[in-house]
Structures are given as C-alpha cells and as structure tokens.
Write a structure and sequence with these properties.
Blueprint (H helix, E strand, L loop, with lengths): L1 H18 L1 H13 L1 H4 L7 E6 L8 E4 L5 E4 L1 H13 L2 E6 L2 H9 L5 E6 L9 E3 L8 E6 H4 L14 E5 L3 H9 L4 E5 L2 H9 L5 E5 H10 L3 E7 L7 E5 L3 H16 L2 H13 L3 E2 L11 H8 L2
Helix pairs in contact: 1-2, 2-10, 4-10, 4-11
Bound molecules: arginine (ARG).
Length: 299
Amino acid sequence: MKKIYAFMLTAVVAASAFAGAAFAEDATEAAAADWRAELTTIEDGVLTVATSPDFAPYEFYSIDENGNPNMAGFDIALAQYIADYMGLELSIIAVDFDGVLSELQTGSVDLGVAGLSPDPAREAIMDFSDLYYMGGQSLVTVADKAETITSFDDINSSEFTVGAQTGSIQLDLANQYTPNASIVAMPKVTDIVSELLADKEYAAFIETDVAKCYQKIHPELEIVLDVPYDQAGSAIGVNKGNAALLAGVNEAIAAALADGSMSQFVADANELATGEKYEGLLDEAGEAVTEAATETAGE
Ligand code: ARG
C-alpha cells in the first residue's frame, strides 16, 4: 500500500509541477473517493493524535469522582469520532502546544487536534482539514487593569508585559498588535493565566472560548478587546502529504457536523469544563500536578 501511496504522491507532485493545477485536483479527488483503500497511518490500525490539554473546552483533563484525570474536551471527542469513523484505534499524545507542531513537523503523529488555526505559515509542516469549529481571539487582563485598556495602543510599549502561548498564532497577534510591548511566550496557557493573576503580565492574547472557561474559575479575568484575525476557526493538522488520511478526516468532520455530534461534543465539553478539571500536562505518575489541581479543586 505504501508503494501505491508513494506513486500517488509522485503523481500529485508531478502533476502540479508539469501539467498544471487541474490534473492535481483530479488526483486529489481520486484520493478522496477511495481513501479507505489507500489509508496508511504511522502505526497500522491506530490513529495517533497529538494534543495540548491546557485549553478547555477544546482539551483538558476532567477529574472524575475518584480523583482521576481523564482527557476531555470537544477536540478529544472529535478525535475519537474520527478514529471510529475510520475504523482505527485512538492513541493520544499529550504535549505542550509547540510540541504538537513539532510532532507534526517530524511526521511522528497522524494528526494534531489542538484548536489549531489554519495559519498559512504552517502549511510547510502540515496539511489542514476543513474547519470544524469557529472561535475567536481576545485580549485578556485582570479586573483592576481592565479600564486602562481600551485599544492595543494602551499597552503597546515596553513597560507592559504581554503574554501568549509559545508557537501559537496568539504570539503572532501579540507581535502584530503590540509590537513594542515586552512580549513573553509561555509553553502553557495555564502559565499565562497564573502570570496574569500574579500581576507578572499586564495582558495576554488568548482564544476567546478558552479565556471564558478560565474566567469561570478566576472571575477576576476580563476580556477587554476582541482581536481581529483572518484565519478564524479551528482545523485539524494532518501529517503532510497523506492525502487519503486528509480525505478521511474531512469526511468524518463533515459527518460529525451534519449528524449533530459536533454540537453535542461542544455542549458536553462546556458542561464538563465547569466541573472539576485540570489543565496542563500530568506528571510522570499520570497525576495532575498539585499546584494546579488545587486551583481547580478549590473555590
Ligand atoms: N489557535 C491557536 C493556534 O493555532 C492556539 C492553539 C493552542 N492550542 C492548545 N491546545 N493549547 O496557534
């Protein structure tokens, strides 16, 4: 199967290089039609997915009644739906967000499902599925600073520390809208929120629905500005060049949107996210790291 696939890839590359885009489109359509026959994954029979569980309601750990952290969120439910749809077993790898990008870059995973924005700058290292969710971008601060920010200009100088997640489009947005601020990149959204609460960052660029989720635990957080961004919505990052996998993922997404599953996943995730949860990576024993655990268990 690998050989056929390699041939197909060559055909697509050759087509776009020599015969123009029309033929390339035909080849892609052919792959879309019989992706099941062509499907290859990193590990046979398994769909390997990287995610960054610091991002409720997209992905996080929900703590069950026995105190055990279980990966949850609508991205995780969608990943399971896609695996089932393709007849594969789901295997999830939890890493920081920049790790999701590098796992895709090195081709170590089949998919990155992490509220990924289909940023054209990432197209060199992954293919993007169709959009499965529409979100937005926000500038967030804490209540006692909220009134001081009415535009990006108010924080666009070096005395203001502005946070964003490492590798994220929020970091690009920080550089775009507040280029003169002291911009700090942090590996986890959890870290950014802690810094805001500890008065170490003045403001931060965060995905709107994620900010709203953190707000439920920390009501002192305030969304002060809507951040304009062209690539609205989330897509799945797909192992680059795997046309059959991409076609299968798109078909599964279309099915999840059409049969009501996706809206159910979003509703369930938002509901779970208001319960006891943990965001960030687990320690080596698979336990929630205590400091953040108290942050979710308390209050
Ligand atoms: N949408 C943003 C991006 O693609 C942030 C995604 C962060 N995801 C996460 N699970 N922390 O850059």
